[in-house]
Amino acid sequence: MYGLTTAAALVATAGYVLAAPSALVPRKTFQVSQIAKGKVFINGPTQVVKTHQKYAKLGATVPSDAAAAAAAVQSGSVAANPEQYDESYLCPVSVGGQTLNLDFDTGSADLWVFSTVTPSSESTGHARYNPSTSGTLKSGYKWNISYGDGSGASGTVYADKVVVGGVTATSQAVEAATSVSAQFTQDTNNDGLLGLAFSSINTVTPQQQTTFFDTVKPTLAKPLFAVDLKKGTAGSYQFGYIDSSKYTGSITYTSVSTANGFWQFTAGGYSVGTSTTTSGSISGASIADTGTTLLYLPDAVVTAYYAKVSGAKYDSTQGGYTFPSSSTLPNFNVNIGGTVFTVPGSYIKFAPVSSTTYFGGIQSSAGIGFNIFGDIFLKAVYAIFDESQSTPRLGFAKQS
Ligand SMILES: *[C@@H]1O[C@H](CO)[C@@H](O)[C@H](O)[C@H]1NC(C)=O
């Protein structure tokens, strides 16, 4: 639910991200049910180094480029476990040797955690990072972040080892919270965030820090990560490789602007219902944001969508479009890079806000400054966040 950092003062903080459901949809305890599993690769460069080491006794030296390349073979996969109604997805991460469940957020660039330095009144029930075991304080460094839903956190900074699905950052900036807003305190499933936007919007001062992805990028088999979110069940993130079993057909790539620090792209036309012949266009810039629950689109698109939902209306009390529980929702089809992707209507029937009413998974992006392709959209695709080309790009394919 967090997503889209506002630290760079880019967007209004109009409480747009799930304002109604986070207040009205009760959260229940969610137990992590899957263990992260690393992926084992046959390791070419390591073999090269071993070979040279073996012969070093005989006077051979290890070529430094081969030694560097030997590190560049990490890759791995980590589970992404949904909270109730898929409000956010949490992934187990080892931070300084301790496992925390973090919300992976492509809309922000700070890795921050509940910690032993967080007041107990704000952190009871959370797993806490203990920097005293292996952390090194970055003296004088601070951070402070605000998210689009009005939540925020701030604190101090350590360097420590972080492991995600078997991919290791030996020295990662770990931002330990000394203060968190009530939204974070209350969600005891969530022990912090792991930002995957561009490091240009990291909030650490006096010197910005790199995201986990930027830290490990030179060591990954490929400089990319892939996201496979699912409705109501565990999905996963892959770092350093694309899992071809997770999609069908081909991957369509679209170029990314990093100007605002987000995975920003341009969406094309759209249609509502069974016809995938799209028309019109989705105006404005769009971002792919795993940390935002819903799909936020221009008013004209939202109006056209709910015109096809019987009983739908904008409900100012709930802060968004709602409709009767009995309504069947149409699909939403969107053209990105020349390929039409379909979000099933069942995904857009997001969550009950009363015994008779549902809150919609598509809502207005007016006032945000971007359209946000959050989890409602991402659940329908396998998404590749790719820096293997001269400019970053996003790839989308149909989930298998
Ligand atoms: C963090 O930023 C918020 C909003 O700008 C501000 O209200 C708060 O005082 C700041 N906290 C710290 C510890 O600097």
TrEMBL record:
Belongs to the peptidase A1 family. Secreted aspartic endopeptidase that allows assimilation of proteinaceous substrates. The scissile peptide bond is attacked by a nucleophilic water molecule activated by two aspartic residues in the active site. Shows a broad primary substrate specificity. Favors hydrophobic residues at the P1 and P1' positions. Residues 1-19 form the signal peptide. One of its GO terms (molecular function) is aspartic-type endopeptidase activity. Keywords: Aspartyl protease, Glycoprotein, Hydrolase, Protease, Signal. The keyword Aminoacyl-tRNA synthetase does not apply. The active site is at D105, D289. It holds the Pfam family Asp. This is Aspartic protease. The keyword NAD does not apply. Residues 89-397 form the Peptidase A1 domain. GO terms for biological process: proteolysis.
